[in-house]
Structures are given as structure tokens and as C-alpha cells.
Amino acid sequence: MKRRAWLVAGMWMSASMLAPTDAAAAPGPRTQVLIEAYGDSTTLGITCSDGHCGPQAQNAVSYLQDELQARHGERVRVTNYGVGNTMAAQLRDGTGNRRAGPTAGLPWQERLAFSPAQIVLINYGINEVMQNQTPEQFYTAETALVKTARALGKEPVLQTANPMPDNRLNARLATMVAMTRRVAAEQQVPLVDQFAYISSLPDWKTLMSDGAHPKPGLYRLKAGQDFQVVEPLVRRLLDGSP
């Protein structure tokens, strides 16, 4: 317990030097906007080829940073904290992969208190289907993630999961997507509806590398959708607009 208390105290001091406690609500224009992306393997950027799956540099988070920096320069940075095979409840409870950042083993509230980010992206749903979570459990977890982020002065942005080629699994995923939309509406937070967008693309299944993970080209398209929602938030912070 003493070792954990020392670690937490040390991380708190480091975080307090990086940013004000209520970074997103700080008055005046920002000199830098930090964004953190949380989610599963589709956030991490897994792509499969010839039976091998692994994280790729060409993923939605890296493409989003490229687009934001093309507009605003290096004043904007996006950090990828995606972890494969994880669910929203694990992020909330701090029970996911502990290698995803120095505070990854902490519950969401503690972890986010140490974060200097002003904007946090949240993308889950697929593993909730694969691990037999109920839509209600998913709704509860995502609601907690959003409320905690808001309470700590962050701007949460929800993302629906990309669809899955298997029709049976995709039907179950649609119930999770409905929960993400519900949370966004109830909590009045921005939503990137990747599920609806990708489902509307002709032959979208050909853009998938396997049953869950996009090819790099689809990751780029996903980043374009993220950019449309996130860039106005970034611009507002850089301009100091209310």
C-alpha cells in the first residue's frame, strides 16, 4: 500500500506540473490542445493480413493527428491509449491492460485526474459483444466514463464502433451502438457515429481486414469523420471561445 501511495503521489505531482486541474475549462486561448483516444483494438489500430494481426502506424488516431496538425500545426497532439480486447467497464475500473500508459492500472477517475488532456475520445462496443456484456452494462459504463470526464473538466467525445461483417454479430453490435447514441444524447456530448457512416458505404465489408478490424484505408475514412467533430472543439480551445 505504501508503494502504491508513493506512486500515486508521484504521478499526481507530475500531472499537476503538466496542466491545470480543470484544463478544458481554463479561460483564454490555449497554446496547445492535448487529446487522448481510449478504446479497443480498433482504436489501437489493429489490421490483419495473411492471417497475422498487429497494430499499424496507419490507424485512425494517427490519421486524426495528421489532419489536425495540417490545420493547426504541432499545437495539437493526439495520444493513442487503445488496448485490444478491452471494454468500457474495464477502462472505468482500471482493469484493462496496464501497459497503456503510466496510469493505466488506475480507475478512470484517478487516471483522468492525472491527465493533461482537454479532450478524450471514447470508442467501445465490439468487445462488449464478444464478451457477452448486456447493452445495459455497456450503457452504465459509458455513462460513468462521460460523467467523470465532464466532472474533471475534460470534453468527452463518444464514437460508435465500426460495424462487423458477420450479420449475427453486427445485429448484436447495433444494440451496443444504440447505447452509445443514447449516452451521447442524454449527456449532451459530441458523437462520431462511425457505425452509421461505415454501414452506409458501398461494399464496406471489403474495407475490413477481418471480422472486426478495418484496413488502413478505412481507418483513414474513420479519421475524417472524427476530424469533423473534433476539429471545431480544438479550434474553440485554441481561440479561447466559450
UniProtKB/TrEMBL annotation:
Xref: Gene3D superfamilies: SGNH hydrolase (3.40.50.1110)
Residues of the SGNH hydrolase-type esterase domain: 37-220
SUPFAM superfamilies registered for this protein in UniProt: SGNH hydrolase (SSF52266)
Domain of life: Bacteria
GO terms assigned for molecular function: hydrolase activity, acting on ester bonds
Cell wall biogenesis/degradation keyword on record: no
Keywords recorded for this protein, A-Z: Signal
Secretion signal span: 1-25
Annotated coiled-coil segments of the chain: none
Pfam families: Lipase_GDSL_2
InterPro entries with a match to the protein in the record: Ester_Hydrolysis_Enzymes, SGNH_hydro, SGNH_hydro_sf
PANTHER family in the record: THIOESTERASE 1/PROTEASE 1/LYSOPHOSPHOLIPASE L1
Record's protein name: SGNH hydrolase-type esterase domain-containing protein
Organism of provenance: Paraburkholderia xenovorans (strain LB400)
